[in-house]
Amino acid sequence: xxxxxxxxxxxxxxxxxxxxxxxxxxxxxxxxxxxxxxxxxxxxxxxxxxxxxxxxxxxxxxxxxxxxxxxxxxxxxxxxxxxxxxxxxxxxxxxxxxxxxxxxxxxxxxxxxxxxxxxxxxxxxxxxxxxxxxxxxxxxxxxxxxxxxxxxxxx
Amino acid sequence: xxxxxxxxxxxxxxxxxxxxxxxxxxxxxxxxxxxxxxxxxxxxxxxxxxxxxxxxxxxxxxxxxxxxxxxxxxxxxxxxxxxxxxxxxxxxxxxxxxxxxxxxxxxxx
Amino acid sequence: xxxxxxxxxxxxxxxxxxxxxxxxxxxxxxxxxxxxxxxxxxxxxxxxxxxxxxxxxxxxxxxxxxxxxxxxxxxxxxxxxxxxxxxxxxxxxxxx
Amino acid sequence: xxxxxxxxxxxxxxxxxxxxxxxxxxxxxxxxxxxxxxxxxxxxxxxxxxxxxxxxxxxxxxxxxxxxxxxxxxxxxxxxxxxxxxxxxxxxxxxxxxxxxxxxxxxxxxxxxxxxxxxxxxxxxxxxxxxxxxxxxxxxxxxxxxxxxxxxxxxxxxx
Lengths: 155, 109, 96, 159
Hints:
The structure holds four protein chains of four kinds.
Chain A: H1 5-27, H2 36-54, H3 56-62, H4 65-88, H5 103-134, H6 136-142, H7 149-154
Chain C: H1 2-23, H2 27-51, H3 57-81
Chain D: H1 2-20, H2 25-44, H3 60-84, E1 93-98, H4 104-116, E2 120-125, E3 129-134, H5 137-144, H6 147-156
Antiparallel strand pairs in D: 1-3, 2-3
Helix pairs in contact in D: 1-2, 3-6, 4-6
């Protein structure tokens, strides 16, 4: 009954802090190393750890694959949308300085929004890839046209 | 000045413990005994080096981050060692034990 | 100077851990060497930050410690259950 | 439940403030939003419970950690010498140590404390005992003496 008690409890203790660290890296991208891509990977790491210890079913409940797929598109939309908004405001594509009255502030906000888009896409893609990888055995077993290797050897 | 001395002492001690753990990892006979040598690196070596760096940095943001690294290692390294040893036991690795009927299963029996 | 000396010690320990990873008769020896190598790498990144005067590297060290843990758990789970999606390790019928 | 959510949020926000180092309004508001998002996601994962937020541990844990630190220093020296000196022998032994903890958090803390002390590694946990691999006979005797077990039980008891 009390089999993987150590792993379970350490995962429970760590998961919120991994998520917080992901957000920290996301929003401090312009002060130190990091940014959208790294934050997305760390964010996905929290879910991967959860899926490793609690199983894929529970992870799919916590992060529904549909939400992850929406996230993939949403991130790109945020990125491109920022570019379109800057064009509508009279600049060129992704010209952040028109986002605010002060050009420096505009640059700052623009890079934050674009990095956020990158983070959303990367985390959603990483979670989707992991779900696809970890769940591939179940898919193979369900399909009838795929013959398991052992039976093929016998025939 | 004293801080410098403490820092030197911690860094050198940590580096020596890391080397000692590495030598142990090469010398010891099976995976369970090697995990003890790895434990020297994970605890003694890591904490002393982090302490030495923290003494060097003083009370700044750097020390806070070193503290968080130490805290993370404090929770994760024993967990992964435990998982590894459990996996080795499950995977059929028999620990080398000098046969001693008096102490095996000492209190539990 | 003192960071360089510590770095030298750490590099020696890295070589020794790598040696165990290359020699390791069983796969568990190799995983142990990998895990220890990761811990030493965390320390090496932290010292490198001081050595180069860029303490920003500590964020990377923190991240490396995290990834090292998750990676080790993933490898061990794959070895033991044969896939990464095993739903309830607690309910698994193993005796240990 | 509410208590756990409040404690988790405040711990996360304190961590953010410690890590951040930038205290302008924008960064701090990002911090607030991040903490709320973290708590929402951890609730979705269903891990905000007595194991994820062990509030029943009492303040003796600080003294326990200091004591554990001393144990770690002692056993580190012992194991490091055994690694290096050719004269010192190792004498591995596997045994089962009884545990007196009531909660799973207590058992996990005890198992991790055993592993954290070089020279002893916890192999498997059961309800009332832990299988331990020790490098030497004296290390095994230290665990079987039960000091660490008593300490962890004292930490997890409600005041």
